[in-house]
Design goal:
The protein is an alpha+beta fold. The protein has four domains: 39 residues; 174 residues, Penicillin-binding protein 2a (Domain 2) (Alpha-Beta Complex), CATH 3.90.1310; 273 residues, DD-peptidase/beta-lactamase superfamily (Beta-lactamase, 3-Layer(aba) Sandwich), CATH 3.40.710.10; 63 residues, Trypsin Inhibitor V, Chain A. It is built from 21 helices and 26 strands. The strands form eight sheets. Strands 2, 3, 4, 5, 8, 16 and 17 form a seven-stranded mixed beta sheet that branches. A five-stranded antiparallel beta sheet has the order 10-9-21-20-19, with helices on both faces. A three-stranded antiparallel beta sheet has the order 1-6-7. A hairpin with a 6-residue loop joins β9 and β10. The N and C termini lie far apart (145 Å).
Length: 657
């Protein structure tokens, strides 16, 4: 019996051994074939000490080659704690804390850690690391202390174009603006220094390091002109201060043919070299008492590029769009036909009475030119009703107002319109004169640029070219024309009427002596029942063949100057254009010789034409009918009246009977 029990125990022990051995084989196989690659990678990571080398981030230039953002050479200090001798740890901690003005206890903890690598300080100027080098040479303590090349982003112009350029984080990654949008192009590829170590972090073998160089990022050229940006910044800042614009302001200046943004300013700006310091003295004084959530909110507000991220009601500047549609659809064919429209102070739309801004003294009989000069709401409401919802929305789409513009900046917002099938007579009425919907400033200036360039919708752009870091080769980025919106004839007529708005209408304050300026003023409520206003001016120059389009937007002006676009936004545009146009060497408008208008009332049409021909003026009959007998038809009224100065080649409008 004892013999049988012994055999049984031996058999069981053998089975257990075989089982354990089998499990061991399975485990080895699993490690070898299933986890082998992963463990091999982990072993490599553990046995190598990688110190990253940041590449030089690409330079950002303006259109004239001026540097807007660049990478400056700095250095980063790290340590390998396990390679620092025990008797030297306190000395190293003391030296590092003294040289770089760091907390001694914090540095000592890092020096005593059992890790392979610890960061001490990043992006420090070379004069500081040279102090460390001198200390290392004088003490002979070298092992375990690393000084590696690094780069730091620097913005030579401080806050100029801050909302366009954006900034980078401590790891050289773009966080906002162009820096974020073009991060992949600008950032390049990291290099590294590799050294083999044992499991405890000690150096294996000779300790030789493998140097893998960083690959620098490519550079980019912006459409921004630093000089024009500076001019726009100066006058926008003055306007926001003088008019007490509590919510700031924005200016965009654009080339209509190419879509190039020559200037884009949001006020107030912030320091790109110190982007995490708030730019409001009031908020700065209470900064330390704010929660982190509140701090983030204020910083996000500071970084917002209102020109592309904030929507607003454009108000009467949008009448340029309604005017273009009415002409293109042949609802109006003669822009100077006196009496084609009549302003009685308001208009009833589906039971809702909508007043003209000058309801207390109606404009009376008007041509389309008069209506635009006077910014008469009832006329544009009537035009909108004739166009109809379906056709109006077709043009909104053509003008790019139902979609984002596609500008190459992060954070662009879209417009806010009612769905087409939700638009009734009242909604169409308010739409036609620029209220109860919202668009961004970049959408409006892009749409009006189509009027400026003869009818083409062009995608606005900020970056015009890239430069290869290795070869220096420049790659141009071509302008993008999306579609034809209106005819050249329609665009020309609208520009001519815009010229009258500035020379005789609500935009007089945008005049610049010697130059042909066209524009349209606008004022709208910033939300419903907020008692806040947005005032603006939309302009272009020269009116015959525009080189630039400008949009000025002031948010919630509360100063003594009021909130009307003609009073406070138009002067800003005029001041900017008074410096920008000479800078661009824009040809001044040639002044035509003027003559005194003769009296032709009571004359026949034939006689009047002969009289006007002698002074190089033309006759235009306002109420001309088919088959009029010029020898018998008598002129009963003329505009302008006799005795008024008129440019040669102009015309007078007459009524006949």
């Amino acid at each position: 019996m004892a013999n049988i029990s012994g055999k049984k125990r031996m058999r069981n022990a053998l089975l257990i051994c075989v089982g354990l051995f089998s499990l061991l084989i399975i485990r080895i196989g699993y490690i070898q074939f299933i986890q082998g690659e992963e463990l091999q990678t982990l072993a490599y990571v553990q046995q190598t000490l990688d110190r990253k080398i940041n590449p030089n981030r690409g330079t950002i230039y303006d259109r004239n080659g001026e540097v807007l953002a660049m990478s400056a050479s700095v250095e980063t200090v790290t340590i390998n704690p396990t390679n620092i001798a025990k008797e030297n740890k306190e000395k190293v901690a003391e030296a590092l804390s003294n040289i770089f003005e760091l907390d001694y206890e914090t540095i000592l903890k890092r020096v005593n850690k059992k890790t392979s690598i610890e960061n001490i300080i990043k992006k420090v100027d070379k004069e500081k690391t040279d102090e460390l080098r001198e200390w290392m040479n004088s003490t002979g303590i070298i092992s375990g202390i690393n000084i590696d090349e690094d780069t730091k982003r620097y913005y030579p112009n401080g806050s100029l174009a801050s909302h366009v350029i954006g900034f980078t984080g401590s790891d050289n990654q773009g966080l906002d603006g162009i820096e974020a949008k073009y991060n992949e192009i600008l950032s390049g590829e990291q290099g590294k220094i590799v050294r083999t170590s044992d499991a405890s972090g000690g150096v294996i073998g000779t300790g030789e390091e493998e140097y893998i160089p960083a690959i620098d990022g490519d550079s980019i050229i912006l459409s921004i002109d630093s000089n024009i940006q500076s001019i726009a910044t100066k006058y926008l800042e003055e306007a926001c201060i003088d008019n007490e614009c509590t919510d700031g302001g924005a200016v965009i200046i654009m080339q209509p043919d190419t879509g190039d943004i020559l200037a884009m300013v949001t006020h107030p700006e912030y320091d790109l070299n110190d982007p995490f310091t708030i730019n409001s003295e009031e908020i700065k004084n209470s900064w330390d008492t704010l929660s982190q959530t509140d701090k983030n909110v204020y910083l996000q507000q500071m970084w917002r590029n209102k020109a592309i991220t904030d929507t607003y009601e454009p108000g009467s500047t949008f009448k340029l769009i309604t005017t273009s549609i009415a002409l293109e659809e042949k609802i109006v064919t003669d822009i100077d036909k006196k009496g084609q429209f009549t302003c009685t102070g308001g208009i009833d739309i589906a039971g809702t009475y909508i007043r003209c801004w000058r309801y207390y003294r109606p404009h009376g009989a008007e041509s389309l030119r008069d209506a635009l000069m006077n910014s008469c709401n009832p006329v544009f409401i009537g035009l909108g009703q004739q166009v109809g919802v379906k056709k109006y929305y077709e043009y909104l789409n053509k003008f790019g107002l139902l979609n984002k513009t596609g500008i190459d900046l992060s954070g662009e917002a879209g417009s806010i319109f009612l769905k087409e099938d939700k638009v009734g007579p009242v909604e169409l009425a308010t739409l036609s004169f620029g209220q109860r919907f919202e668009i961004t400033p970049i959408q409006l200036i892009t749409a009006v640029s189509a009027i400026a360039n003869g009818g083409n919708l062009v995608t606005p752009r900020i970056v015009t070219a890239t430069i290869d870091a290795e070869t220096g080769e420049k790659t141009e980025i071509e302008p993008v024309v999306k579609n034809k919106v209106i005819s050249e004839d329609t665009a020309s007529k609208v520009r001519d009427m815009m010229k009258s708005v500035v020379s005789e209408g609500t935009g007089k304050n945008a005049k610049v002596e010697g130059y042909s300026i066209g524009g349209k003023t606008g004022t709208s409520e910033d939300g419903v029942n907020t008692n806040k206003y947005v005032t603006s001016f939309m302009g272009l120059s020269p009116t015959e063949d525009p080189e630039i389009v400008i949009l000025v937007v002031l948010y919630n002006p509360t100063g003594e100057g009021g909130h009307q676009g003609g009073a406070i936004a138009a002067p800003v545009a005029g001041n900017i254009l008074s410096e920008v146009l000479p800078y661009l060497e824009t040809e001044k408008a040639k002044e035509k010789e003027k003559v005194t208008v003769p009296n032709v009332v009571g004359k026949t049409v034939k006689e009047a034409k002969e009289i006007l021909k002698k002074v190089e003026l033309e006759l235009k009959i306002n109420n001309k009918k088919e088959g009029i007998n010029e020898a018998n038809a008598t002129i009963t009224e003329q505009i302008p009246n006799a005795g008024i100065s008129q440019e040669k080649g102009g015309y007078i409008v007459c009524e006949v009977q």
